[in-house]
Specification:
Layout: H1 2-27, H2 49-55, E1 57-58, E2 74-84, E3 90-96, E4 99-105, E5 122-134, E6 137-154, E7 160-170, E8 175-182, H3 184-187, H4 192-201, E9 210-213, E10 219-222, H5 224-228, H6 237-246, H7 251-256, E11 269-281, E12 286-297, E13 302-314, E14 319-326, E15 330-333
Parallel strand pairs: 1-6
Antiparallel strand pairs: 2-3, 2-5, 3-4, 5-6, 7-8, 7-11, 9-10, 11-12, 12-13, 13-14, 13-15
Helix pairs in contact: 4-6
């Protein structure tokens, strides 16, 4: 009997616990649904210089500028140096009071003679401050001086570098190679008398000439200066006819043009230009060409250098050499084997 009573007691306890659990469940409340407000679109912002500065990272050159000046047009008179179109933006370069200046520009100077300035010309530039995006990184903005217009107010009379030399590494020979660099900007301004003067001095001095073939399959010697002056190839009819026409009244020049030398850059004995400067004096109708030249004899391991000044007088349709001066030669030995050990007698 005592065993049955204990079972009934346990059943009563379980029943009480069950009723208590049901009561607690009925007291739980359901959480209310949260109402999600509708998202409103952002208000549009005007794309101004001020907002760009807040959104973009400016370089250090912008610190000195006040953005309030961006719409102010200013005028400067500068000495023109050159155009540089090697970047994403074209630059007009000049000089004022010994300081180099650069302006971003947006006109076609090769097609419009009003903007086809020569080095040394005094020009008046209208410009304002502006911002440009850097190519490949739209988050970077540079502040620049942008040229709105430019005009020549006086002609310059400065020597122009027509040819210089530049060292560059040649992977095929694993060494630095000196190559001619011709002023392409100047070629857009070159006059016919200047073309004749440069063609004359390059007639019998090597200028990186290589054998090739013309349009008819005929063997031809193509030279850097001859090609740059649009005279076809060395000893071509185009070159000879042009020079003979312009030097028709110069007996010495005509005698020189009777025989045409062909000096490729592989010749054992040859000479080549290191530098050419040309200066045109319109008031005196003269053209002065200053050149530095190096000669070499590979067989004898010798080299020599000299400088030369040639002065030409020109008119509307002819030109003549009126003076030519050469410096004394400076000779030196050259080592054609850079790995050669001077202490090795073998």
């Amino acid at each position: 009997m005592s065993f049955n009573r204990r079972i009934m007691k346990y059943q009563l306890i379980i029943f009480v616990l069950f009723l208590s659990a049901c009561q607690q469940k009925s007291d739980l409340k359901t959480a209310p649904e949260t109402e999600i407000p509708e998202r409103k679109p952002n208000e549009e912002r005007q794309d101004t210089i001020e907002t760009q500065q807040g959104q973009n990272q400016l370089d250090s050159t912008t610190i000195q500028y006040d953005t309030k000046l961006f719409n102010e047009i200013q005028t400067d008179t500068i000495e023109f140096m050159d155009y540089n179109d090697d970047f994403d933006y074209g630059y007009l370069n000049g000089r004022k009071k010994g300081k180099n200046l650069s302006f971003v520009y947006n006109w076609y100077w090769t097609e419009n003679q009003e903007y086809n300035f020569r080095p040394g010309d005094l020009i008046q530039v209208e410009w304002k401050m502006d911002s440009i995006l850097m190519a490949g990184d739209e988050e970077v903005v540079n502040v620049v001086e942008r040229a709105l217009d430019a005009k020549k107010i006086a002609s310059g009379n400065l020597p122009i570098h027509f040819l210089t030399r530049e060292d560059s590494y040649d992977e095929s020979v694993k060494a630095n190679i000196s190559s001619m660099v011709i002023n392409q900007s100047y070629l857009h301004n070159i006059s016919e008398p200047e073309r004749a003067a440069l063609g004359y001095i390059a007639f019998d001095i090597g200028n990186e000439c290589q054998w090739g073939y013309d349009s008819q399959g005929k063997r031809a010697l193509y030279c850097q200066i001859v090609t740059a002056l649009n005279l076809d190839y060395q000893c071509s009819d185009t070159q000879l006819d042009f020079l003979r026409k312009w030097f028709t009244k110069d007996r010495v020049a005509n005698e020189k043009l009777k025989s045409c030398p062909t000096i490729p850059n592989t010749a054992t004995i040859q000479s080549t230009f290191d530098e050419i400067l040309i200066q045109k004096d319109e008031s005196n109708k003269t053209i002065t060409v200053n050149s530095k030249i190096t000669g070499i004899n590979i067989r004898e391991s010798k080299s020599w250098k000299w400088s030369q000044t040639d002065v030409f007088e020109y008119s509307q349709d002819n030109i003549a050499l009126i003076d030519s001066k050469k410096s004394e030669l400076t000779e030196s030995k050259i080592d054609l084997n850079p790995d050669h050990d001077t202490n090795n007698d073998l």
